[in-house]
# Entry
Amino acid sequence: MSEPPRARIATASLAGCFGCHMAILDMDERLIELTKLVEIDRSPLTDIKSFTRRADIGIIEGGCCNEENVHVLRDFRRNCDVLIALGQCAIMGGLPAMRNAIMHSDEPLRECLEEAFISGRNIRNTTHNIPNDPALPLLLDEVYACSEVVEIDYQIPGCAPSGDIIFDTLSRLLTGRFRGFGRDMIKFD
Amino acid sequence: MAEPRLIEISPVTRVEGHGKVTIHLDAEGQVDEARLHIVEFRGFERFIRGRLLWEVPVIVQRLCGICPVSHHLAAAKAMDQIVGVDELPPTAEKMRRLMHYGQVMQSHVLHFFHLAAPDLLFGFGAPADRRNIFEVLRQEPELGRRAILMRKFGQEIIEATAGKKVHGTGAIPGGINRNLSLETRDGFLARIDEMQDWALDAVALARDYTMSHATLVDSFAAFPSSYMSLVRGGDGALDLYHGNLRALDASGSTIFDQLDYTRYMDVLVEDVRPWSYMKFPYIRDIGAQTGWYRVGPLARMNTVGFIDTPLANAARTELLAGDGEGLNHAILGNHWARMVEVLHCVEKIRELLHDPDLQGTDLKATGERRQSGIGVIEAPRGNLIHHYEVDENDQVTYCNLIVSTTHNNEGLNRAVRDVAVKQLSGQAQITEGMLNHIEVAIRAYDPCLSCATHALGQMPLQVELYDAGGGLLDARNTSG
Ligand code: SF4
# Structure
């Protein structure tokens, strides 16, 4: 008997803490079931680093804090049929977006950089510069939610969302029975 | 004649967080320079200013979803000092310890099985689409199942002590906000024997791999260095939750010992280099050039005098004996050291579960307010330092963090260079498998590039090949 074709899922971590990817692994034993139904494509959990073919579902953790995040996010939008923003960082910016607004500051990003690399107390910085190598992607003026950059199909709330809600969403999307979340599943945190 | 080249590996995968590697080759195809870059920036030290002290342990863990408990507890320990508490009620200290052992267990299991195992099981140069946990689940279902269940056990310990698996709220300044019910305790006790058996098997698996690949292990990105960790006050035993700082040089001689960690700035300085958002700490008295050191499981095996749980202590003795006299510098041995610590955590969890203090109701202490607090803990990946100052309105006015991966920055970069020189120098064609060797070396450190990002940004692993004129010849993000 031939196996049915497996759905392809790709995941990416942008400006996030990786906690949402931990939550994906918190599906625990259900991962064993899931590997029978799906193929994990491009993901930090695999060594596939760019798209080789279209994915059915793309899952994004984290918002956009630098140009590379934007690039990856657009790449996901182009290459995935359904795009899911997983967790508060992807949906609203989350913790990284705290740098967008610092009280009494007109230049929050500059202040963050200076504190970290120039004015910090225990630092030795012989060049007196903020790191600026071409290998470092340009920082964006602000941290952006994914939906400010591309169109997002579904949002799974939580920080991190539980393994249960991720499994529930994926399994129902894969079987075409997704009708939204139950009230008890919608949590900010 | 060939042109100089730049190779890029981006993103580094099967590590937590985002990193990138660049390798410059000269016209003869020799490696000129190879670097691991942390490419993302957060700015936490600045934007946490003005937040209220009790919020900090909850906010700061969102720097890192793999070891959030370590940040949660290091911040809570700093805030204990600020609210004037030097000694927690036994229930609070033990609940926090239980949380931490659960955390170290899940993080080490995750790293060994979910992230590193595909290299060890299938080979460093195996096809890229096979090197992942999902393939492990298909090829080695029993091993994969145990990995899932051991990690789940650790995560459930965290949930029971902190309220959630990722980003809980258990520790509060001066204490903890819950105790452990007998029912929950019994649920864990029913599974602890199995966990111990599996941990013993995992130690054996890592040991056998290390022993049967002795030539590889002794030469692969292996170089001597200094080491630093907390050790228990007095007897110098392994203590992941609390203790004093100890640093040894490569020959095993003491650099400093039983140093009160609130004096960390007396001994450590953080160097800034223009090509990475991650700083390079070094030991002040030795200096920026040679004062670098390493932290983490293997570092701890080297620094501590002994382990106070019998099975893990025996396993550590075996790990060190393999290297004859002196310290063990072989970084692939970090995987073995990690499994020894999983065993230690399981033994400690069992000990704590039998302790009636976990059902105590005295959860929080108070004291006289202070202005500053420094909390240090041994996170899964090594020493973690949190430093805060808080004003009379309870608002944070200063913050400095040194995370484990930052301590290892120099070691990581040396490992990248070492493997790049051996694998890539003089090669006409650079293959994906060769580049994965570089990532294997990075993975041995289990770097948490999310944590390391707190200062700046994000770190995908990317390798670039430049010509001598700096032109980009080849860029690879290890997917080929
Ligand atoms: S939503 Fe929460 S868990 Fe997910 S990446 Fe952001 S901070 Fe981490």
Remarks:
- Residues 56 and 70 of chain A are 20 Å apart (CA to CA).
- The two ends of chain A are 44 Å apart (CA to CA).
